[in-house]
Structures are given as structure tokens and as C-alpha cells.
Amino acid sequence: MRLKNILIVVKDIEHSKQFYHDLFGLNTILDNDGNVILTEGLVLQDEKIWKEVLNKDIIPENHASELYFEEPDIEAFARKLEKLYPNVRYVNRLMTHSWGQKVVRFYDPDGNLIEVGTPM
Predict the structure, then answer these.
(1) CATH of region 1-58, choose from 3.40.50.720, 3.20.20.70, 3.40.50.300, 3.10.180.10
(2) pLDDT tens-digit readout, 55-66
(3) What is the pTM of this model?
(4) pLDDT band at 3 (very low <50, low <70, confident <90, very high)
(5) Rg (Cα) of the chain, in Å, rounded?
(6) Which fold has domain 61-120?
């Protein structure tokens, strides 16, 4: 058995597709009316569909999970993030952990937590 995809819930599929393409270079593999599969296995699910499937409220910024990306040139990524999405909500701006890894944490437009760090 293997993990196939990671699904996140979004309010605006088109905006989220653009966001993940702009920052991470993820491209659309399949766009199936409210369910979009991007490269690297990330799936965007329309919030309305997900609420219907679960019959539960969606809780953004729940801090129960994060998407983790690695980027060797983290300073360039941080500049790109600030330029393309100046209103992004940060958990922490670019910082260095005690073990030497540089990271930035922020939310996507729907409150999904993202961490970008230098490779360890």
C-alpha cells in the first residue's frame, strides 16, 4: 500500500490552483468539477463538496496538519512569497531553528498551514 494523495479543502478552486502554481510550480493533472489533482499529489477539494460529503463544518487554521515543502534557496522563496502574495498570513516569517534549518510558515488563502524549509 502507498499514500496516493493529500487533499485540502479550498473555497475557490481557481484561486488555489493559481496560488500553488505561482509559489510551488504545481500544475493541474485533472480538473473534475470541484476536485483538482495537482502535480506532487496535492488535491484541492471544493469546500461545498467536502461539507456535503462529511456533513460537518470546515475549520480553517485548525493547526492539525501542514503541507511541508523544501527549498534550497529559501531567501529567494521568501522574497517571491512577499512579492506575489503580500497579504499572506504568516505563522512565522523566515527564521532559523537552533539546528540550522531555515523555515517560513504561513497559511494558504483558505487557512491551510504551509511550511517551507531548507533541506536537512
Answers:
(1) 3.10.180.10
(2) 998 998 998 999
(3) 0.93
(4) very high
(5) 15
(6) 2,3-Dihydroxybiphenyl 1,2-Dioxygenase; domain 1 (3.10.180)
